[in-house]
Amino acid sequence: MIKRATLIWMFLATAAGIGLFVLKYEVKSMEGQLATIHSKTLENLEAVHVLKAEWSYLNQPERLEDLGRRLLNLEPVKATQTIDIENIPFRPVGGSENNPNLTKVHPPAVDQTPPLFANIRRKQ
Amino acid sequence: MIGRQPLFPKKRRREPPVPPRVETGRSRLLITGALFSVAFLVVTGRLIGVTMFVEKSQPQYSKTVGKPALTTGRADIVDRNGNLLATSLKTASLFANPRIMLNAREAVNKLATVLPELNRRQTYEKLTQDRSFIWLKRHLTPRQKYEVNKLGIPGLDFRDEERRVYPSAALASHILGHTDIDNRGLAGVERHFDQQLRKNPTPLKLSIDVRVQHAMRKELAAAVREFRGVGAAGIVMDVRNGEVVSIVSLPDFDPNLPSDIESDTRFNRATLGVYEMGSTFKIFTTAMALDAGRVSMRDGYDATHPIRISRFVIRDYHAKRRWLSIPEIFMYSSNIGTVKMALDVGVAEQRTFLQKVGILHPSPVEISEIGAPLIPGRWREINAMTISFGHGLSISPMQLVAGVGAMVNGGIYHAPTFLKKPPHSRSTGRRVITAKTSERIRRLLRLVVAKGTGRNAAAEGYLVGGKTGTAEKVVGRRYKKKALMSSFIGAFPMNAPRYVVFAMIDEPSGTKKTFGYATGGWVAAPVVGKVIARIGPILGVRAVDEKAPEIEREMAIDIVTQKEGKRRLASF
Q: Residues B395, B275: contact at Cβ < 8 Å?
């Protein structure tokens, strides 16, 4: 009787010991992994930080203006190149002969005005 | 006890007499037992405490590690759209430990292949000293660090440092300021917000827009080149809340190289320099007279003869030698008319008015370089007269811009600021003139650009209004002849002003194109016109048809040309 109980206790104690040992090492290795991930994250954050500075450097208005002029043939917008949205005319009902697809386009009736334009007063 | 038989069986229950030795043994046992129980109790208590309660000394792994975050010693500075203006980057600085260096000569030769800027002789001397630490080069680029590492010289090592970097270089130099090698703010917002930038890692958001800043800087630089000026200043301010969208002072500097900054380029003409502003001050005098109800738009003054007071003579630059109405006085920039207008209002009232629009106090903007206005010690009649047309009182351009903002925006003075205000925040300005007076001033300013001295500031579609100003520079205690401060202050669009735009060129010389003139109308007004044409679309200001009847009606002004005589209606 006594012997069997002792055996059971010994077995349980050993099992608990081994279990604890394994668990401890597992936690330790996971901690290691976490630390690696963190240091890698930090490295990447630093790289992003440097890239942001470089992006800002490359986006200097002076440089963009020069690139736009030289490579894209662009120049600053003039006031005469802008128009109010309410002054944009709708396509004519008849459409053009060159493009038969346009003939089906009609200006929306008052009650069918798309919601985006609903609040804009239209000038005739 | 078994071996002993009691002598008196009846008294069995009585304790037998205990020998004293056993007695002491027992009591000792008792004490020991008690001590052990106390010890076990303490252990139990401690066990419960450790298992059930969290103590401070216990490491909390989940908390201590947490999410990794990049921390720099100094927060970033960004513009109103989030573009990076200043940031802190990690750099590596190279140092040597000469005591463990094997071959100094070989090390110098190897280093010279990747860091050619190092002085060989000096480096050799450094490497042969009997020390264990000596800087070789601070703030290496990542590529340089990699190449030095690749050399594999024993005794060389790196130390991580931080360096303030300004990616846009000189673009916003005066407002940003710069830092020293230990990253302490020495000028501009870097100095004003030094503590905040160190403690709070969230980026500091300025009201500056780099695109507007670039437009202003470029046009000012072109004007300085064209008119061979010694410097310039330019400001764009939102009149609705006082946000400064652009502030430029030329010449400027590269804050990345703080040791190379010369004192002349360091000087901020827009906030630190105080100047006599000249005719732009007539905006204040006219607004004051109209607001006080002392004159109406149809009244006027006789400007036939110059005014003599003590040893001064006040003349008109574009003299008409006749009676002039208020709009004419403004349009032709008549000193005589303006002086009479100011005297009609009163000396004390003038001082109070200028106080209200922020002329008599240093500008409240958030940088360290702020010039205090130069105000006459005793405000006598002669002072009131010269101040009415902008002489005898020196202020910084920033003060002028803030004051004019209040004149055109409906009469509310907003303190200028370099910080972006949260959207939809209610601006706390204070009323300085009535909305009606402000509306009249807008018409007058538009008149100057449509018909008067400011024609060169016109930007088609943006309904520019403004006033020219030309003042002789004060050097020492007297005026320096032929050294002018030519400025123009404008606002757009004049029917509902959004921005005040100011440009000033320091000591310009006239060119053939300007017929030798170097006045505000010829030198500074075109800068303002060009800047507005460029920034209008960027700032989302809706362009209008300046010839449209409803616009012309809004800007129309009654010009009386003769006292109580016939009037003609000018429709512009």
A: yes
